[in-house]
Amino acid sequence: xxxxxxxxxxxxxxxxxxxxxxxxxxxxxxxxxxxxxxxxxxxxxxxxxxxxxxxxxxxxxxxxxxxxxxxxxxxxxxxxxxxxxxxxxxxxxxxxxxxxxxxxxxxxxxxxxxxxxxxxxxxxxxxxxxxxxxxxxxxxxxxx
Length: 144
Hints:
five-stranded mixed β-sheet
């Protein structure tokens, strides 16, 4: 199946009903996308499909055909959100962090705190209490 993965045209031979999460991790070797619950409830596996955040554990691989998929690896190492998550201690255990960042990357640059909260509402964190995550997203707004 052909799709664009992190900006590169990619052809992967995998069962069309395999979860996109598993294809990314097992077939493509991109382990930054995490599995938290496997039920679309926690957001740890969030990736972008055609620019929209989705829980990749709920997406059959067949739905990725002819789309653009972006994972945390596709942001590169120097993305401001990643640095701000480290600076503001928004990342602790690290399970939710890639999904949080992928959900946050699509927020408007001038998003209010309430808009950030709503934008990240589908992503759960058991470590930070969210304040550090919100601070990181707000700090990154001035850097992007």
